[in-house]
Design a protein that fits this description.
By secondary structure, the protein is α+β, with helices and mostly antiparallel strands. 44% of the residues lie in helices and 13% in strands. It contains twelve helices and eleven strands. It has helices at residues 20-52, 54-76, 92-102, 106-111, 117-134, 174-177, 179-191, 198-207, 221-228, 241-249, 289-292, 298-303, and strands at residues 145-148, 151-154, 167-168, 172-173, 211-212, 216-217, 232-235, 253-258, 268-275, 281-284, 315-319. The chain has a five-stranded antiparallel β-sheet with strand order 7-11-8-9-10. A two-stranded antiparallel sheet has the order 1-2. Helix 1 crosses helix 2, helix 7 crosses helix 8 (198-207) and helix 7 packs parallel to helix 9 (221-228).
Length: 327
């Protein structure tokens, strides 16, 4: 028989390995170690970003927070189907691209130039506050921010189902008589420190003598209401298109009382929001969402102003106090 060499261990029983539990604990330790290293590295990078780029980093962090919050809300509270009579949602599918084109992101607001940058951020904050007041769901109709000469403005429609049946002055439905409170609510919500909705604005106007029973609002609602909330309002009746364009270009928004024409058959307040690159203007029409998404010729709007002069009608320039119209 062949002599067994001393290095032949084929017959020696191998020692058992560590138990499964020990191997799992050992593997978990490696995972935690790697995760800790990655977390530490990420913390250092984020800290450096906030140190060297504070505005951009804050904007990105806030956007991520809003996105996460919206996602959780949509999971916990699935959006309801649109109300068929709601002007916002009547053509929502066709207008979806317009919403995306007009909606402002926080990062875009941070990059906007001009002396009213802080005010634009205030308008965005007010828009979010109003969404929370109105509903726990962030619906598309509350994400349309219109770019104006004073900064972004959240769009309201007087026929929106949240306040369409609210009685202005205790008798007149907002859907038919609420253009005055809705227009002033848009401006006050965007450019003052007071978040407000059209129904709240209607109650304030009724209590302060601006409601004209059976016909809507007195024309003085524009200077009376806006000035009460800290905005500068000046009557600019009688100006031509060039002068109106100059006001829009110098940080003013115009409120127009329209007569018979494209916007009204009798009398209707609209907001002339700002100049566009092609020389036309954008508007906020509280009674017609499609008009709000349309570019308009400024001369046409001025031709269709209502022939009225009480309360400073038919045209007012609105601005922050420091950009008041010089007399």
């Amino acid at each position: 028989m062949k002599k067994k060499e001393f290095w032949d261990y084929s017959g020696v029983r191998k020692a058992p390995g560590p138990p499964l539990g020990s191997r799992l604990v050992h593997g978990l330790g490696h995972v935690l170690l790697v995760s800790g290293c990655l977390a530490s590295f990420s913390t250092v990078i984020i800290s450096l970003c906030f140190y060297f780029f504070p505005d951009q980093s804050a904007a990105m962090a806030h956007s991520a927070y809003i996105t996460a919050q919206t996602t959780v809300q949509n999971i916990l509270h699935p959006p309801e189907k649109p109300h068929p009579g709601d002007p916002f949602t009547r053509k929502q599918k066709q207008s979806e691209d317009h919403f995306h084109q007009n909606a402002f992101s926080t990062s875009k607001l941070q990059s906007m130039k001009g002396r009213h940058t802080s005010r634009t951020l205030l308008a965005l904050a007010n828009a979010r506050k109003v969404r929370e007041i109105i509903s726990s769901q962030v619906d598309a109709q509350y994400q349309l921010l219109i770019e104006t000469a004073m900064g972004p403005m959240l769009y309201y429609n007087q026929g929106d189902s949240h306040w369409a049946d609210h009685l202005y002055g205790g008798r007149d439905p907002m859907r038919d008589y609420g253009c005055g409170p809705t227009v002033t609510a848009m401006l006050i919500n965007a450019f003052s420190d007071q978040p407000i909705t059209p129904d709240e604005m209607a109650d304030w106007c009724a209590q302060n003598g601006s409601h004209a029973s059976g016909s809507g609002s007195y024309h003085s609602i524009i200077p009376k209401t806006l000035s009460a909330f800290g905005l500068q309002v000046d009557s600019v009746a009688g100006i031509d298109a060039e002068e109106a364009a100059g006001l829009l270009g110098s940080g003013h928004v115009l409120v127009a009382l329209m007569g018979k024409g494209a916007f009204s058959n009798g009398g209707h307040f609209i907001i002339i929001a700002g100049l566009l690159e092609d020389g036309k203007v954008s508007v906020a029409d509280s009674n017609n969402f499609e008009n709000t998404l349309t570019e308009w010729d400024l001369e046409q709007i001025l031709r269709e102003l209502k022939h009225s002069s009480d309360g400073g009608a038919p045209l007012w320039a609105v601005s922050y106090p420091e950009t008041a119209v010089s007399e």
